[in-house]
Design goal:
about 0% strand; mainly alpha
Length: about 190
């Protein structure tokens, strides 16, 4: 059996060099970069790193978006399923905020911190749990939770996101985050009315 009879997938390397040289693979646009200028030649607009103001604005925009989505998840009619979706959104929000601040992210650490921070705001977190369970009660429970759950979940996500922004702004990481230090901040954080 020679190279010509072998299926293409198991032909020896270099068998298609004539094809490869005549048909170059274009580099994807996201991988094409402009050369980086030396620091002395850079201007403020050339700097690839976002300024602190732009980074905070982007982080706040993320928190606003995820708090809206958390509020929408509050409309999920299944008890406890809404809490699972909201928790997943809060973890994704934390991951994206961590990326903005170049903070290493660990899903397990993120889950633990969000759970402990949510625990520090006991009235809101227990209220969200009760509203989720109330969805199992026909008519009255469903009606009450329909109005209360979106507000509670949106507010909790907003407060958690803003607490992490404050922590990362001060140079903190996930490993040195102490939920007790931000409990008062979380309780006082109120989402502005849109």
């Amino acid at each position: 059996m020679n190279k010509k009879n072998l299926p293409r997938a198991i032909q020896p390397a270099g068998a298609d060099t004539a094809f490869a040289s005549s048909h170059p693979v274009p580099e994807p646009a996201e991988l094409q970069h402009e050369p980086i200028k030396p620091a002395a030649q850079r201007t403020a607009s050339d700097d690839p790193r976002p300024t602190a103001v732009l980074r905070r604005a982007a982080a706040k925009k993320l928190v606003d978006r995820f708090s809206l989505w958390s509020g929408a998840a509050g409309f999920i009619p299944l008890p406890l399923a809404d809490l699972a979706v909201i928790g997943g959104m809060q973890i994704e929000m934390l991951r994206r905020i961590s990326q903005l601040y170049d903070v290493p992210f660990s899903r397990n650490v993120g889950k633990a911190l969000i759970a402990s921070l949510a625990g520090s705001m006991i009235p809101a977190s227990s209220g969200a749990g009760m509203m989720s369970l109330a969805k199992g009660v026909p008519l009255a429970g469903t009606a009450i939770s329909f109005f209360a759950m979106p507000a509670l979940s949106s507010g909790a996500s907003y407060a958690i996101g803003m607490a992490f922004i404050e922590h990362f702004e001060s140079g903190g990481t996930l490993l040195d985050f102490k939920p007790g230090d931000y409990a008062a901040f979380v309780r006082s954080a109120k989402k502005p009315v849109a």
